[in-house]
Design a protein that fits this description.
alpha+beta, Rossmann fold, Dna Ligase, domain 1, 3 domains, 8-stranded antiparallel beta sheet
């Protein structure tokens, strides 16, 4: 019997996270890296590392043939894609499947069905899952898009059909804005996901962004692991997440969980996925998309449930049944995650790549840091600016907020600018403390910070 061996088709903190989970399961790991990532931590921690190309993503992490060749040449029988890059690319997954290699995620068919945002809306509609009003299928031209926008009314969102991570989304409020944004959004989608197709959706003002974590196995067992509140976001990119949500009651939580499972079961979904909803002021919820991969913010779910999601992903990919049932899961305590980025919030969040001279990580009971950085590490300018995820856990939400304040105080990164101080200020904001924020919070908060800075 061949020994299990996983290729990690990613970089940064998620690659480190997957390596640790695999090692705990006794599985060998192979890292891939671009020339820019030669000194990255995941390269040092894996059992084997293979350089697959130049600095740009298209020449390395997005190059399907090179990623697959690395897996085959190193004798891997599984590939874990992490998030981003090729994690939701149905063509890549089909190639992996045709090589008889296990993909740690759903099948190519499931990704085609639900990973494509336009197709996902149709599936949701067929299964009586409430959706936000929008286009029926893809919008192929500016002219067709304008007709849809006028029919449902502004503001609308132009969204990448294969998008994720907040990229490939434009919010427009007039015909003129629409004309300018359509081609720009398509180009952004093509650059990030290799697919420039778009669809249109009504933009709901000031909603909560709530997502439900689900996982299923090959035996047809499905569970949801409750919700994460991801409403603290800037330009559709999440900044702070918490679990459970401070605005959901038990009835709504159960209803949203059951709805998410209904969607997963409808397409025989296997492995971990996240069903994302918008919740309005009247607590009506609407399906917006399903992410067919592990999420950046998965650690807060792990903290409140005690489930290691990445290890469970790997087990399921190797044909094991889920190690727990729905009745075994209970919410215990409260968790918050802050994404620590190499960026300057006072310069319009401009990325700040460069050498990290020194790092001091916070610690103590209930504090977790998922990262790939270390003193002397050079942050490359070619990829996402996230340096680390700071996660805290406490019995109550208020205690978690206080713990996060202390952790942020003690998180030191010298040599480049970060958003640590910015996140620290948010932890003292009255709206956030009360839990009454929405997806427009960061925009309002940033105006206050800029005004204060200019005084």
């Amino acid at each position: 019997m061949l020994k299990n061996k996983i290729l990690i088709a990613n970089r940064g903190e998620i690659a480190v996270r997957i390596i640790r989970a695999a090692k705990e399961l006794g599985i060998e790991t192979v890292a891939i890296y671009s020339k820019a990532d030669a000194d990255s931590l995941h390269v040092k921690l894996a059992d084997q590392a293979i350089c697959i190309g130049e600095n740009s993503s298209t020449d390395s992490y997005l190059n399907m043939n090179r990623v697959l060749s690395a897996a085959i040449s190193s004798g891997c029988n599984a590939i874990h894609p992490g998030y981003g890059f090729l994690s939701e690319n149905a063509e890549f997954v089909e190639m992996v499947e045709s090589c008889q290699i296990k993909f740690v995620g759903p099948s190519s068919k499931s990704i085609e069905q639900i990973g494509d945002k336009s197709s996902a809306r149709m599936i949701a509609k067929e299964n009586h899952v409430p959706i936000v009003e929008g286009s029926d299928g893809l919008v192929l031209s500016v002219e067709d898009g304008l007709k849809v926008a006028k029919k449902i009314g502004y503001p609308v969102m132009i969204k990448a059909s294969s998008g994720g991570g907040g990229r490939g989304i434009s919010i427009v409020r007039s015909d003129e804005e629409f004309k300018n944004a359509f081609s720009r959004t398509s180009l952004e989608a093509l650059s990030n996901f290799g697919d420039g197709s778009l669809y249109i959706e009504k933009f709901i003002e000031s909603p909560r962004h709530i997502e439900i974590q689900v996982i299923g196995d090959e035996e047809g067992n499905y569970v949801h692991l409750f919700e994460r509140d991801c409403s603290m976001q800037r330009r559709n990119q999440k900044m702070i997440e918490e679990a459970p949500s401070p605005v959901l009651n038990d009835i709504l939580r159960r209803k949203m969980g059951q709805t998410a499972l209904k969607l997963a079961k409808a397409i025989n979904y296997v492995n971990a996925g996240t069903v994302e909803f918008l919740v309005d002021a009247k607590q009506n919820f609407y399906f917006i998309e399903m992410n067919t991969r592990i999420q950046v913010e998965h650690p807060i779910t792990e903290m409140i449930t005690g489930v290691d999601l990445v290890k469970e992903q790997i087990r399921v990919a190797y044909g094991k049944t889920l190690s727990f049932k729905q009745r075994d899961l209970k919410i215990k305590g409260h968790a918050i995650e802050c994404r620590i980025n190499a960026e300057n919030p006072l310069k319009n969040f401009m990325p700040t790549p460069g050498r990290i001279d020194n790092v001091l990580f916070p610690g103590g009971f209930g504090v977790r840091v998922d990262t790939h950085i270390y003193p002397g590490y050079n942050v490359p300018p070619f990829y996402d600016s996230m340096l680390a995820k700071l996660i805290v856990y406490a019995p109550t939400r208020l205690e978690a907020i206080k713990k996060m304040r202390v952790a942020l105080e003690q998180f030191v990164v010298e040599g480049i600018d970060t958003n640590i101080e910015y996140q620290y200020l948010i932890m003292y904001n009255p709206e956030f403390i009360k839990g009454v924020y929405d997806t427009g919070f960061i925009q309002r908060f940033h105006l206050l910070v800029e005004e204060k800075n200019n005084e």
